Amino acid sequence: MYGLIPAPVSVEVSEGHCLIGCLPGFGYEKQFEPEVSVVASWLAQQLPKTIPEEYRQADIISINVYNDLVKGGTEAYKLFIRPTVIEIHVASAAGVVRAGATLAQLVSAHGCRLPCLSIEDQPRYSWRGFMLDTVRNFFSVDFILRQLDLAALHKLNMFHWHLSDDQAWRLDLEEMPELAAHGAQRLDRRFNVVKWKGGSYSAADVRRVVEFAASRHISVIPEIDVPGHSSALLASHPELWCRSAHDDRHFLPEDRYGIFDAVLCAGRDESLNLVGRVFSGLSGLFPGKYLHAGGDEVPKEQWLVCEHCRARMRDEGLQDKHGNFDPERLQAWFMEQVQVGINGLGRTMVGWDELVDGGCSRDVLIMAWRSTGHGAKAAELGYKVVMCPQNKACYLDHKHLDLEEEPGQLGICTVRDAYAFDPHPEGLSAAAAANILGGQANLWTELVYFGKQAEYMLYPRLSAIAEALWSPKAVRDFASFASRLELHGRFLDRLQVNRYRGPLE
Ligand SMILES: [Zn+2]
Question: What is the reported pTM?
Answer without folding.
Answer: 0.97
